[in-house]
Amino acid sequence: MKKLKLIALVLAIGLIAMVFYQNRSFLTIQSNFHIDLYFSYLEYFGISNAMLLAGFFLIGLLISYFLSLSNRFKSNKTIKNLNAAIASQQETINSLKSEIESLQSRTTPVIETVSDDTLSLKEE
Known about the structure:
Elements: H1 2-22, H2 24-27, E1 30-36, E2 41-48, H3 49-107, E3 109-113, E4 119-123
Antiparallel strand pairs: 1-2, 3-4
């Protein structure tokens, strides 16, 4: 399985490298980038398309990370609560098992032999 994952990773990296290599003329073009907001105007000169692509990719990764962060916290809290419930139920199970064992040991009849080959029951 590890070899299969390694092969898939190498293939994926190879495909990405091939796409970048085939589009290197587009990716190396220097272009002007400007952001026109209501309160501000920002302009950047001479940014390559590869840098714009990488920048927006990283911004997308950060946005998706922060949006999924609350779900991770909820999942961790749920896992902790369920582990606590498991521990308390395990304690209950162990106490009930010990109680059953103590009750069984008290009421177990003991068979004695009597001299005239008859059996009698004796409770402890």
